Amino acid sequence: VLASVGLKVGPKIGKYVVNLNGLKDVFASAILYAIEFSDVVVCDEVGPMELLSPEVRRAIETLLECDKPVLGSVHKRLRDPIIEKISASSDIKVYDLNVENRDSLVKTIVDEITAGLQG
Fold first, then answer.
1. Which entry of 18, 28, 71, 72 is 20 to 30 Å from 36 by CA?
2. What is the pLDDT of residue 77?
3. φ, ψ dihedrals at 13, nearest 5°
4. Is the dihedral of CA 92, 98, 101, 106 positive or negative?
5. 55: which residues sit within 8 A by CB, 6+ positions away?
6. Sorting pLDDT into bands at 50, 70 and 90, what band is 57?
């Protein structure tokens, strides 16, 4: 459990208490494992809860420096240096996903990842 209304210890985001050890053990570890062993890294999602963990923050920074295709989701309105770095990077394409374009964006994103894997 990474966050729950039933947890007693940890920082709160809204009604949820965040399990920082869980974020470190699951989320951060999964990102670092994917960087090392995967052709494409999928990271869903980087939001306020996830960014409470120093280990997740470091893993995201490492992810931003890797040379593999990354598909991730972030909160559009979240103000955080990591999110601002993503938005400002010329190496990163940011798509505004909404109800109107969510179906058509699938093909676009798959095509771009495939092209990136083919070099």
1. 18
2. 86
3. -125, 110
4. positive
5. 23, 24, 28
6. very high
The answer to whether residues 49 and 16 touch, using CB atoms and an 8 Å cutoff, is yes
- Taking the alpha carbons of 80, 103, 37, 24 in that order, is the dihedral positive or negative? positive
29-52: average pLDDT: 95
Q: What is the CATH number of the domain that holds 71?
A: 3.40.50.300
Q: What predicted TM-score, i.e. pTM, was given to this entire model?
A: 0.87
- The reply to whether 74 falls in a domain is yes
What is the pLDDT, as a whole number, of residue 38?
96
